[in-house]
Amino acid sequence: MAGAVGKGPASTPEDLPGKGTNVITSLLGQGAKLLQSLKPINKIHAHLCAFHFYAHDMKRQVEAHHYCTHYNQDMRQCLIYDSPEKNARLIGVEYIVSEKLFQGLPDEEKKFWHTHEYEVKGGILFMPGVPQAAEHKELEEVAKTYGKVFHFWQYDRGDTLPLGLPQLMMAFTEDGQLNPNLAKSVEDKFGVSFQKHAESRKHMTGPSMGIHPLANPWLKGTGLQSELREVDIKENPSASK
Question: How far is 155 from 12, CA to CA, in rounded Å?
């Protein structure tokens, strides 16, 4: 484990420690697809590509592929991968709620959430391979929502395993924040133009009540980072049962 953390380019799935998948494991996996329903995974209905940055360090920015399921009209849950490829790493989870649900959260909770208005209207959030008309239908709703996302795998620093505590992530709110090199690499990869996206989405609107002042806390200079705190279980009798 000592060599699992390193600086420089992010690791690739091929760098993962451990043996390659053997024939028996592969066969069992194929059999499971035929015999098991995998209902939660099969409920995924949309793939959105966007970018996240660490809530305590905007300079650390990563490509984030969201595979989302609708719970209902007011809430979605998304698995976050580092790419859309078959060997992609599961790096985090995002929960997306409507303005109505967000407004009902305790104030102390609201600071963990970010807005999606700029991501949509700025063109940097998109649905790979989806025709514009269908994409716009989906994104008109997303622009009004709030998201809470934690990443478990800091692959951007070269970790070959998901190490340390989950990290709260945030999303961009204006032009000039996204690293232009990262933006261009994604535009080239998917053959899209963020500028053209933005031009076609000028009519879209964000939350009807405006962006809540407690969301996007980093805009006020507050960086949030996970911290592990030891608790004496002797003071918590239920923990030893």
Answer: 8
Average pLDDT across the chain, whole number: 88
Asked whether residue 11 carries a pLDDT value surpassing 70, the answer given is no
Answer for the pair 112, 225: CB distance below 8 angstroms, yes or no. Answer: no
* pTM (2 d.p.): 0.85
**Tokens 């699992």 found at:** 4
Integer Cα distance of 44 and 218 in angstroms: 31
DSSP structure string for the chain:
-TTS--SSSPP-GGG-SSPPP-HHHHHHHHHHHHH---HHHHT--EEEEEEEEETTEEEEEEEEEEEEEEEETTEEEEEEES-SSTT--EEEEEEEE-HHHHHTS-HHHHTT-EE-HHHHHTT--B-TT--HHHHHHHHHHHTT-EEEEEE---GGGT-SS--SS-EEEE---STT-S-HHHHHHHHHHHT--HHHHHHHTTT----TT---TTSSGGGGT-----------GGG-GGGG-
Instruction: Report the candidate in 27, 25, 5, 29 with the shortest Cα–Cα distance to residue 15.
Output: 5
| Residue 222: how many other CB atoms lie within 10 Å | 11
